[in-house]
Request: fold
Amino acid sequence: MFLIEKKSLLLFTEKFKTLKMKRFFWIAFAMCLAVFSANAQDGKKLLKNAAKNMGKYYLDPVGQSAVADEAMSLIGQAFDMDATKMDPEAWNMKGQVLNEIARAEITRKVQDNSYKIPHPDASRNAQAAFLKAMELATKKGHTKDALAGLKDNEELLNNLAITFFQDNDYPSAFENFAATLVSYDVLSKNKEKSRLDDPAVRNDQVFYTGVCAYFSEDKEKCLPYFQQLYKEGNAQPLVYEALFTLTVEKNEAEGMKYLEAGRKAHPDDNGLLFAEINYYLRGGRLDDLVGKLKMAIEKEPENVSVYNTLGNVYDQLNQKERAAKNIAKADEYFNLAYSYFEQALGKDPKNFDAVYSQGALYYNKAAGMSADLNEVANDYSSAGTKKYNAIKAEMDGYFEKALPYFLKAEQLNPKDMNTLIACKEIYARKGDFAKSDEYKLKMENLKK
Reply:
């Protein structure tokens, strides 16, 4: 028997405790790893169950709708598990299931255009799943499977984008067209083939992506796509028109740069001309408009709206000169305005805007004389009375000339409030209060 020194005994005890703690740590770690592995396996099992009956859904998306709903539910359950969220293989499985859902629904839509796609986000969510699998990949196989899924998914995204575009659902079409460009970038960087490898096909894809953005509420989203086409020098007319329209209000010089480039590339396109006309209209640049509108008439001689627009421009110039007491110039513009409204009616005899505008020409000319009448209203001398009567007679004459146009305009559009107001006022001035009250009643009924 031998004795252990107290100091040695203490050291032995501490080592024993350390070894015990290490053993406990490894046991705990192993248990966690087992739980993690079990969760990962459970997640994959759920995903496999989600994929199991997708063939039935492909054959009959309407009759087997519960299959897709169940698959979506199982995917949700699988990814409620933390282990699944970190498993690249699980993300690839998710992408594959969503690809099959998207494929079945797109096929059904092609067969029956009235079919409403139940899971419109399936293809984009599949793309996101494959991209996540690449991010988490720990093996070449994970990346290879994800890229294969993306290549399959790329076609689905494109077909869905076309479907939405044909249904005029431009926001949804934009999201899917834009997603195809993301897939192309990923596939290209990984030296994989893509349907967008052809520059002409890719150019069209970028164009339609921008078009869908431009025709949606958030037009600004089109800018990077259209600017890319502009820089590459192969842009369609709409590209220049959109860049001009979205830029010119903020930076006129830059906007005009796009406009001039568009004219050079597409000298016969009318869209650019009308975009410029609308810009000048918004800014009230009447003198600039006259020449542009005459050019538009030369290009589109049957376009009635251009004649009406030019007539309205001349009417505004007429009112501007009349207010400045430049009566001769005002009358010149008055006659030009009337002439273009008459030309519009020559193209379309029942054009409401042209008929109403002719009446408004005379009505506004008469109303503008009220100030002249008020100036002599308190002059009771013989000369003053004579001048008052002359102005009033001329003014009443213009109101009288306006009335037939407004009555015709009412026949063309009985619900136009401005027409009813004009008729009511003219009859009141004529002293025909019964007729004036009749129009007052029409106005009240229209408001109900």
Q: What stands out?
A: Residues 41-56+73-105+120-197 form one domain. Residues 1-13, 15-20, 22-40 have pLDDT under 50 and may be disordered. DSSP finds 21 helices and no strands in the chain. The two ends are 115 Å apart (CA to CA).
